[in-house]
Specification:
By secondary structure, the chain is α+β, with helices and mostly antiparallel strands. It has helices spanning about 40-45, 55-70, 95-100, 100-110, 110-120, 145-155, 200-205, 215-225; strands spanning about 1-5, 10, 25, 45-50, 80-85, 90-95, 125-135, 140-145, 160-170, 180, 190, 230, 235-240, 245-250, 255-265. The protein starts with a strand and ends in a 28-residue tail after the last strand. Bound molecules: ligand 6CS and fe (iii) ion (FE).
Length: about 290
């Protein structure tokens, strides 16, 4: 246990100048009843695949909603829209639950928010929502990272008591940039070397350079846990722990890949000041409205 720069006890110290070795996570993964079907596996692997979470009609509705958003020229000037590096194509749109009533309603449904409540053993609120697009031919990937490392350092999330749900809106093949995960890696916290510069967060969403683990740490984790990939038809989903090591390669196929990404945090794990950044990121990346989803 060490102290963060502003003197708080910090069990997940990261972004130091010199770098520090990986540590065992001392928080649980499943905070609810472990006896609930499927939760023991989630606890072991740090993720679960949900086949057919949305049916094909629901996928069509969500995709139409997102096409409406990307077709809105005014929204394209909004800071919530992140473009691909070196192009004008949309990479991510954040806060989609505020831009779309259909998505807001979907998030609250018990088959969605209820999953997070079961794992986190408490009421939950939405920490972040986004749509990620990986266009065909030119889609660039996301380098290996733990989401919790960023949320802790830059958003002030105290503990890895959050889960992400990535709902496939297109088919995910092994060859169109689908997400790779290291099963079981959620039990290890990998601190990243290098202080967080001010105002880097938008660039980091295009191409992450701060908050990336060392090649040695990735090599060790991959050697211990191996790598698997989430593939499946549109409507299937991946539910994963906030500290699971994951990443994706680019997409040179003609088949685009998009997903709706929702992050649920426990109401008992609400954000503080950042643990390793000069100031908090904007609310469209890290909500400070902690109202439970009902
Ligand atoms: O910024 C975020 O909240 C998430 N996105 C990226 C590209 N990295 C950190 C975290 O997963
Ligand atoms: Fe991520």
């Amino acid at each position: 246990m060490t102290l963060s720069d502003n003197g708080r006890i910090d069990r997940y110290r990261t972004r130091t100048v010199a770098g520090t070795p990986p540590i065992d996570r001392d928080d649980p993964t499943v905070w609810g009843e472990i006896g609930t079907p499927g939760l023991a596996e989630f606890d072991d692997h740090g993720y679960a695949i949900l086949d057919g979470l949305l049916d094909r009609y629901e996928v069509v509705d969500v995709v139409a909603e997102i096409d409406r958003l990307t077709g809105d020229p005014e929204l394209m000037l909004d800071e919530r829209v992140i473009l691909e590096p070196g192009s004008h194509r949309v990479r991510s749109i954040f806060e989609v639950h505020r831009l779309s009533a259909l998505i807001a309603d979907l998030v609250r449904e018990s088959r969605i928010a209820g999953l997070a409540r079961q794992i986190l053993g408490s009421e939950v609120y939405l920490h972040q929502s986004r749509v990620n697009y990986m266009p065909g031919f030119t889609g660039s990937g996301f380098y290996w990272h733990s989401d919790f490392e960023t949320w802790h350092a830059e958003d002030g999330m105290p503990a890895p008591r959050a889960v992400s749900l990535s709902i496939a809106l297109t088919d995910n093949f092994p060859f169109n940039g689908s997400l790779m995960v290291m099963p079981g890696s959620h039990r290890t916290f990998v601190p990243c070397q290098g202080e967080t510069p001010p105002d880097h967060h938008r660039e980091s969403l295009r191409h992450q350079e701060i908050g990336v683990p060392s090649q040695q740490a990735i090599t060790d984790l991959a050697g211990k846990h191996g790598i698997t990939q989430f593939t499946g038809p549109a409507g299937s989903a991946l539910l994963f722990d906030s500290n699971l090591m994951h990443g994706s390669a680019g997409n040179i196929t003609p088949f685009p890949r998009s997903n709706l990404f929702l992050v649920f945090n426990s109401v008992d794990n609400t954000l503080l000041d950042p643990f390793a950044a000069p100031y908090p990121r904007p609310e469209y990346l890290a909500s400070r409205d902690f109202t439970p989803l009902m």
